[in-house]
């Protein structure tokens, strides 16, 4: 088990990571979500040892130095574009001695990727797939990937997802994925950590949080002025003519009664997903922008 305890980091006198504590096991995929600039990449750099923490630490039940069990590649395009996949495997092996070059080359060939072309000549999807292969064949117990599915087409995204799931089930690897695609995480993550202002705001199992989050999503047919309950308590997600989809935070029986008493012609409760949990968590940010005068948004 990887243990992160009271990890804290300031950058340019700003507290970016604020006493973050959690543990992570092998054999699971953990999603890390949060708004841009909230500290996800900084957290990965602290876990991998690229940054030194101001306080707190990272430890493992299985090794004296936990960071020898971690694979994290920061800003890969900074240097990987100058090399071929075959060259990168040997470069990575210096930092990750357990990397299996033969297995790496086999997976590259199996996925119809070139071994000897420079990465700069490949598509974003091909480069992303090669780097995920490097992570898996490094034989690290814990892999941290920053937006690994971002910008990939459907076929490549499915290939990457399958590789990650296989690594977890076959090799008992622990994987943490930073992502903005919460719906995608709902389908592959065993657990989701939501970070806000440098702190862990929520740590939940997909499906479990949806039942206890006190968030409701309603489809409502509204003619004329919006009901007061929608203005005061709702966040409008969609509008098509008179049909609205509205998210309600801190939903309880009193709010349910107010919605029922509203002048909506039709009301139907819709399933809630992780995107909705994210929106509810950052509800004040949405309302701040909505409240700003036109021309200053």
TrEMBL record:
Instruction: Give the matching PANTHER family.
Output: ABC TRANSPORTER ATP-BINDING PROTEIN YTRB, SKFA PEPTIDE EXPORT ATP-BINDING PROTEIN SKFE
| Pfam families noted in UniProt | ABC_tran
> What's in the keyword line of the UniProt record?
ATP-binding, Nucleotide-binding
Source species taxonomy: Bacteria, Bacillati, Bacillota, Bacilli, Lactobacillales
* Nucleotide-binding listed as a keyword: yes
Sequence ranges assigned to domain ABC transporter in this UniProt record: 2-222
Kindly provide the name given to this protein in its UniProt entry: ABC transporter ATP-binding protein
Asked whether the keyword Signal is assigned, the reply is: no
SUPFAM superfamilies this protein is in?
Answer: P-loop containing nucleoside triphosphate hydrolases (SSF52540)
Annotated Gene Ontology MF terms? ATP binding; ATP hydrolysis activity
Q: Where do the coiled-coil regions begin and end?
A: none
Look up the domain of life of the source: Bacteria
InterPro entries, per database record: AAA+_ATPase (IPR003593), ABC_transporter-like_ATP-bd (IPR003439), P-loop_NTPase (IPR027417)
